[in-house]
Amino acid sequence: MVIKRMLSAAFVILLFCTVLTGCSNSSSSSQDQLGLHLSSDPSDKTVISTVTRRMNWVVDYSDMEVLVRDSDLIVIASVQSIDSVVAENGFYNTHATIRISDTLKGQSSDSEISIAATGGYVSYEEYVKNLQPEEMEKQGLDWTEEEKQNGVIKAQTDQQNLLQEGEQYILCLRESEELGYVTVGSYHGIMRMDGDKVWRKENAGIFDKEAIIQSIREAQES
């Protein structure tokens, strides 16, 4: 059974929005009526601001068949290190080193590879270096020195899973001349594993791990 979650398909990025928050622990979560935790973000970082990019796609990457088709390499891997989080191509990318434990599509000559993924936890220094003074004033960036030193800005696309050191993921990747391996469909190619469950988004789309793996295998046969 191929798992699908249909989304409306429009064109490119239509909206950027910045939501300023107070200091909070990003691993806090709410519960639904069944007692399931609705947040899959395992980070214990102090988030002092959240920047969300909302995207509409010409290609429906919520469709597993499409996601698998456009992936050169699909792996189960753990994040060994977060090497940098920098502004690139109009948003933020996390550059990380991953260790592959299983390959679901394609081949990699190395068990450890570098990848780039949309979004990440951005330092205050990286966040403000490209902002004009009027933009900083508009956003009310009056953080304390402690917040500047220890806090982070959480930059994500549509409640995506962010790469975290030590966490395990199913990653759908394609080769890019500019960045090497990058996640397919931005956040769609980052599925965080949590025991026998998989989160396709941070706050939604929780599936059985074996069902996701089977749907990836079946998509290659269709």
Helical segment tally?
Answer: 5
What structural class should be given to the helix and strand makeup?
A: alpha+beta
Shape: elongated
| Count of DSSP strands | 12
CATH fold name: OB fold (Dihydrolipoamide Acetyltransferase, E2P)
CATH architecture: Beta Barrel
Strands in their spatial order, largest beta sheet:
3-4-5-9-8
Largest sheet descriptor? 5 strands, mixed, barrel
Global Rg:
18 Å
Task: List the secondary-structure elements in sequence, H or E.
Answer: EEHEEEEHHHEEEEEEH
**CATH class, anyone?**
Mainly Beta
Distance between the termini: 11 Å
What is the total domain count?
1
Mean pLDDT, as a whole number? 78
User: What is the assembly state of the chains in this entry?
Assistant: single chain
Keywords: Signal
Helix and strand arrangement:
Elements: E1 13-25, E2 46-55, H1 64-69, E3 73-88, E4 91-105, E5 112-118, E6 120-123, H2 124-128, H3 133-139, H4 145-150, E7 152-157, E8 168-176, E9 180-183, E10 190-194, E11 197-199, E12 206-208, H5 209-221
Features:
222 residues; alpha+beta; OB fold (Dihydrolipoamide Acetyltransferase, E2P); four-stranded mixed beta sheet; elongated; disordered N terminus
Task: Describe the protein in words.
By secondary structure, the protein is an alpha+beta fold. It has one domain: OB fold (Dihydrolipoamide Acetyltransferase, E2P). The chain has five helices and twelve strands. The strands form two sheets. A five-stranded mixed barrel has the order 3-4-5-9-8. Strands 1-2-7-6 form a four-stranded mixed sheet. A hairpin with a 2-residue loop joins strand 10 and strand 11 (197-199). The N and C termini lie close together (11 Å).
